[in-house]
Design brief:
Helix content: 10-25%
InterPro entries: DUF1007, EF_Hand_1_Ca_BS
Keywords: Signal
Number of helices: 5
Pfam families: DUF1007
Distance between the termini: 44 Å
Protein name: ABC transporter substrate-binding protein
Structural class: alpha+beta
Number of strands: 10
Length: 221
């Protein structure tokens, strides 16, 4: 199917995809679930030089997607087909900042180099997608970086794996520090996100709904 090479946002919003893949969820949010983490790359000076999000999709979405990635109809999705999907999918996410919102304590967000290294694999019946965003300018030592990974429409629910939220390359360097802040921590009066209910109208009118549910990962090297 040709839709694999179109923008994820265009794909996810088509009613045909919802009917074929997720008929029981057609009137709700979200439709796809992702476990997320990030690899922090550092240069010889110990500065943050690249960010590498790692996304592991739920098994239902993976099972629905894989047949369409089998472009040669061989009955098996080969590595080359996975790489083609990874490059196309990540390339189409540039418009939405790769579902990665980054802030620095000096208030300037990072700029990425144009070439992006993307990879994909299937592990334990789940699609793993990772891509490396090289920074045009490394983050100076001692500067805190805050990251949130989310789909603004909340069609995809991205949940940071707290016990494995961050890893570092090269691993032998002096350790950085990191923390994970849950979105519930920002709510008052004991309210939790599970208590919040959004109408269809509110969802349609909120172009950044996913940020409400996003955990914040803070890294300082």
């Amino acid at each position: 199917m040709r839709w694999i090479k179109r923008s994820w946002r265009q794909v996810f919003r088509t009613s045909l995809l919802l009917i074929l893949f997720y008929p029981s969820y057609a009137q709700s949010h979200p439709h796809v679930w992702v476990d997320a983490a990030v690899i922090i790359h550092r240069n010889d000076a110990g500065e943050i030089s690249a960010l590498e999000p790692v996304w592991i999709f739920d098994d239902l979405y993976t099972a629905s997607l894989l047949p369409d990635l089998d472009q040669d109809q061989s009955g098996e999705v080969e590595k080359a087909e996975l790489l083609t999907f990874a490059r196309d999918a990540i390339g189409n996410l540039q418009e939405w900042d790769y579902f990665l919102k980054v802030k620095r304590d000096d208030e300037f967000g990072p700029l990425y180099r144009k070439e992006i290294i993307a990879d994909a694999d299937v592990l334990n019946n789940r699609l793993l997608l990772r891509f490396k965003l090289d920074l045009e300018k490394p983050v100076a030592l001692g500067t805190s970086v805050q990251m949130q990974m989310y789909d603004p429409s909340y069609f995809i629910a991205m949940d940071v794996i707290e016990n494995h939220a961050v890893s570092y390359l090269p691993a032998a360097m002096n350790a950085c520090t990191h923390s994970v802040t849950h979105p519930d921590d920002n709510l008052e009066d004991g309210t939790t996100l599970s208590d919040l209910v959004f109408s269809d109208e509110e969802v349609a009118q909120n172009p950044d709904l996913g940020s409400i549910f996003a955990k914040t990962v803070t890294v300082t090297c």
